[in-house]
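Suppose a colleague, Dr. K., hands you the sequence of a protein chain of 135 amino acids and asks what its three-dimensional shape might be. Before reaching for any lab equipment, you can write down a predicted structure in token form. Begin with the sequence itself:
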Amino acid sequence: MPLFKEKCVIIDDNEVDAYTQACIFKKLDSEIDFTILKNEKEAINYFEKASPSDYPYLVIYNIWLPRYFGMDFLSYYEENIYPKIEASNVVITSNSLSKEDKKIAKGFDCVKSYIIKPLQLNHIPTILWKEKEYI
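The predicted structure, expressed as tokens, is then:
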């Protein structure tokens, strides 16, 4: 049985970061089905077209994408998706060291972790097994 319930979404405009993140998870479970989306607009379109049974277990989200403010997507996700599948987890990845960004992210129930890039293999236990962590 797949460790991550098969479906994960990465939202990141940096193709190298997205690919690296997918590879890290695939080291643990080669059966993970990743969908990589480049921005919030693609992500919202993805979720609007998907049925709840197709929602991913894990969303890895780069909070600072060009032309978007990440909290807008988190608001959309928390209002429209999270109530349908509370078992889902949003993990924020960011280059920002801003304490304010972390504070705002903590205000969303759907956010499980806030991780400063780059995502590394040692972050995986935090993502999977701890309640909430902002590192």
